[in-house]
Amino acid sequence: MKNRGGQVSNKIQSLGEYVGLLKDNGLLVETSAEGSELEELVKYISYNSMDVKYGTLFICKGTHFTVEYLKSAVKEGAFAYISEQKYDLSELKTERHIPYIIVNDMRKAMAYISDRYYNQVWKKLNLIGITGTKGKSTTTYFMKAVLDDYLKDMKKPKSAVLSGIDNYDGVINEESHLTTPETLDLHRHFNNAVKSDIEYLSMEVSSQALKYHRTLGVHYTVGCFLNIGEDHISEAEHRDFEDYFQSKLKLFDQCETACVNLDSDHEERILQEASKCKRVVTFGLQERADIYGYNVATSGNSITFQVRSDSFDEEFRINMPGLFNVSNALAAIAISYALNIPLKNIRAGLKKAQVSGRMEVYTNRSNDLYVIVDYAHNKMSFESLFTSMKREFPNKKITIVFGCPGKKALARRRELGDIAGRYSDHVFITEEDAGEEPLMKICEEIAKHVEEHACKCSIIPDRKEAIRQAIADADRDTVVLVTGKGRETRQKRGTRYIDTPSDVEYVQEFLKDK
Ligand SMILES: CC(=O)N[C@H]1[C@@H](OP(=O)(O)OP(=O)(O)OC[C@H]2O[C@@H](n3ccc(=O)[nH]c3=O)[C@H](O)[C@@H]2O)O[C@H](CO)[C@@H](O)[C@@H]1O[C@H](C)C(=O)N[C@@H](C)C(=O)N[C@H](CCC(=O)O)C(=O)O
Ligand SMILES: Nc1ncnc2c1ncn2[C@@H]1O[C@H](COP(=O)(O)OP(=O)(O)OP(=O)(O)O)[C@@H](O)[C@H]1O
Questions:
Q1: ipTM of the complex
Q2: Where does this protein hold ATP (predicted)?
Q3: For residue 375, what are the domain limits?
Q4: Measured from the CB, is residue 65 less than 6 Å from ligand 1?
Q5: Which of 65, 76, 105, 175 to mutate to test the pocket of ligand 1 (most atoms within 8 A of CB)?
Q6: Using a CB cutoff of 8 Å and minimum separation of 24, what contacts does 492-498 make?
Q7: CATH number at residue 426
Q8: Is the entire prediction scored with pTM above 0.90?
């Protein structure tokens, strides 16, 4: 097991070293840098003109990039730039020539550059990479809870986490806005973690990150594949399911041990790809799994289940509803088993684990009205959430509040409308990151599919008002689900993100009146 910690020194490299690195990896097209320019030291690297200092090597990338960003970066101290094309900087009238490095694939180039800039500091960490259509955040936080229980016993710093909920690396503790950070940020997090003597880092690896090489070159001690279902298919994401699936399978090119869920769709193909790894640990509710879960039982908001492996046969408990969370817990047990984490820490960690904005249960003062704030927002999670609710609350009616995002995963409007209509008694359709599409148009598209079922359907565009009404209308025989945003505190309107209270805050406010 890795046990590194200690000081990290960013070795300062010359521009020539980066040119050589790009050339060696077949990415260099041409460069204007020559002679002493190649010896200039790269003191900082940035792809954001608002984050530039003297001696910065500036990266020009992105669909929204404009030459104005580069000009601004040069004014702030950037001394050279990397790009897929040359830019005309003549109007800047700089005293010195600004060398360019032209590459044929900026996204791959960024991964190599970031890796070199931070001296492959990730090698000092035990990295856990988790991918899948659903359950990435939950499993990542289950892992954090297990690792932190173990590290507490060892009197060592808590583990780091990079997730769609938060990023924590020992230095930075922030709400995150991407599932997997952009390349330079990713390596900066690794660097901060090592500087903070952190030994373990669990992170979500999105299909977008894999497709666009955000994690290229990084090697995971354990990589985990949770499941695969149709999602993220749109112009801005993946062109089809195959592209989405293949992107996710890339994880196995970069891990030592693979943990694979035998209950996933396409499990044979996943296993076949996983066989490239040195070791494969399987998990699932099937006896042939290395980590085999059975005897699942619910009691209140807790779930207990038995797990058998070649070295133990033990009962585990999670204190979160949602039967699908057993699969996430089995994933965490499989990863912990691969990492040789003691059983007592796995059990204790899972018992304590809570995941922000996922299956958070709130009740009124008299404890007879349940409102669950959850993050379900695609077909797989809606199906698992409703089937689980029907089993966990067999005699209750279901009210749900949700919406769909603009210009993303367009099939969700039909799929979620249909599933919600099928299982609910009342559906409230509302705002959920409509972005650049008209909100009412999205709501009406969802409503069309809800109304195919015998279910009440209300469109209330204001999310706060939709949650208020759903709770106000609910009687004691109803469970209210508020899904899709968890504890997020912003809404995408147009191209901007507007700060808002979270669903949890709304729910707590309106439950006071019940
Ligand atoms: C707006 C947009 O579509 N951005 C996507 C795009 O980023 P990009 O490299 O083209 O950059 P950009 O956003 O166009 O920005 C242009 C550049 O100008 C710079 N800039 C900007 C303003 C300024 O004043 N100065 C300046 O220098 C910015 O720093 C940036 O470098 O290409 C990237 C390829 O990796 C995408 O990740 C990224 O997705 C945005 C951020 C996004 O929200 N993507 C979603 C779909 C995503 O990645 N989601 C996954 C989870 C989904 C899953 O499970 O697959 C995730 O990992 O979060
Ligand atoms: N293993 C699972 N199978 C099916 N649904 C799940 C599973 N785990 C969680 N869910 C549902 O999906 C929602 C999101 O869970 P989580 O945030 O853990 O997944 P994620 O993969 O990180 O999602 P996203 O990519 O949207 O951030 C949960 O709130 C729950 O409704």
A1: 0.92
A2: 132-138
A3: 360-513
A4: yes
A5: 65
A6: 492/405, 492/406, 492/433, 492/434, 492/435, 493/434, 493/435, 494/435, 494/436, 495/435, 495/436, 497/177
A7: 3.90.190.20
A8: yes
